[in-house]
Amino acid sequence: MKRLWIFVSLAFILLVTAWTCLIVIAVRNAPETVPVSSSQKP
Amino acid sequence: MPLPTPKSRKPNLDSVTTINPDGSHFILHPADVHGRFTTWRRIVAILLIVVYVAMPWIQINGAPAIFLDVEMRRFHIFGLTLVPQDLWVMFFAISGLGFLLFVVTAVLGRIWCGWACPYTVFLEHVFRVVERWLDGDAPARRKLAAAPWSPRKILKVSIREGIYLILAALIAHVFLSYFVSIPRLYSFMQAGPFDHLTAFTSVFLLTAALYFCFAHFREQFCILMCPYGRLQSALTDDDTIIIGYDEARGEPRGKATDLTAGHCIDCMRCVNVCPTGIDIRNGLQLECIGCSACIDACDEIMTKLDRPTGLVRYDSMRGLAGQKRRILRPRLYAYFLLGLLGLTVLSLTAFFRAKPITAEISRMRGPSFFQDPAVIRNHYQLRVFNKRNQPMNFEIKLKDAPVGYEITGSGQTFVLEALKEIARPVVVVVPLDAYTGPVMLEIEIHGQPGNATVIQETKFLGPNPNAIHREPPTP
Ligand code: SF4
Ligand code: SF4
After folding, report:
1. Looking at ligand 2, which residue's alpha carbon is closest to its atom 2?
2. Confidence of residue B37 (pLDDT cuts 50, 70, 90)
3. Are B42 and B125 contacting, i.e. CB atoms less than 8 angstroms apart?
4. ipTM for the whole complex
């Protein structure tokens, strides 16, 4: 049972790290923001 | 001054076809399409609708296959019953399924949107089918929409919108049956709306939202609102299988009789059938839900012209550019392993933890032990929760305890009704002469039927043994 908990805890750490890395990568590679110009003519 | 609403819009890369320059919705009337992908999508959709509707009816371990009982805070998922205390397991479930969906998306692009998303399934295979049946093909529907209001048009539109409302209400009830059991849902339906105001309001609001989305908002939901659509678009790369146009083969466009032109005859069939109104020949666009209608449309034209099919096809960007295709790539392995890890933990914990009962032992408030002339007592509180749909008999005993330790009182066996929880005292005693100091005890809680056992560890506390066993001072 103890081994199972060690495995679960390690899996948790690994998955949280993976999600964090993915979010950081996604935020760093966000597409450029295009400012909405209010004077833009249709 | 508001801009005039155009009669038709030519797809381009700088604007969304279905949004007019003044911001209003340009209503599309996609043309009919037939072909192998259309047939297979219809079969898959019918199967999925059967699954969506059947899930709350199928019983596994005494509960519906999927039943998110919010009222009782119990979540039944394919025979596994989770209570709020088990919800940490959901982190692993969501991670596992999430990463496996990443794999699917990285390999097959927005296959989910085009083939399996409930929104697409109901819109394309229920609402558009009804519309086609009542109002005719795309030119007939366009004509009806443009016609001035007349008694005939009012009647036609009322019948169509009435059927849409009924369908929206049916889907809303199916949705509710995932949260309220079928017998209860049936009793709700027989009672007045004010007897179950929360359920009635939820169904009413959901019906209104579904009606608005499926009857009027349609593709706008996928284009503007769906977060998963965006996420999938972010997960694709040049090796992902998407729906694309073979520019090298198709360009330059020209008449079928022009032998110097490419294979695309610019017939616009692929554009006319597209439910999001884009021209796939402009390349992959965010609006494309991967429905494969344009593949069938173009294949039909190519077959008529006796040219090879697949001018518009499932292929990767690399494949469409004539380069070597590559399915397996490092990111796939990473997503797959992470997904597998999540699902492994989910299965292991489901197997070991998510039992049909939960039981927890905690020390009662107050003194940590009581000492009588003959015994030492520890008082605990036992909380047992029967997650099953039937009553269970419980037995509490000490497991492999040192000599002399025992549970006293009458509460060592009891019956607990289905889906009920109780808290009861448990008293462990040991004769003074058998006590040698604090020890760890294992309390076993055994439930039948189902042979469920939970073992809880707790510490038995008492005074300093030297102080007890010392001879009383002689006067
Ligand atoms: S471009 Fe083709 S696959 Fe994409 S949404 Fe339009 S018809 Fe469907
Ligand atoms: S259906 Fe095929 S031939 Fe017709 S315009 Fe589209 S790509 Fe060209």
Report:
1. B298
2. very high
3. yes
4. 0.76
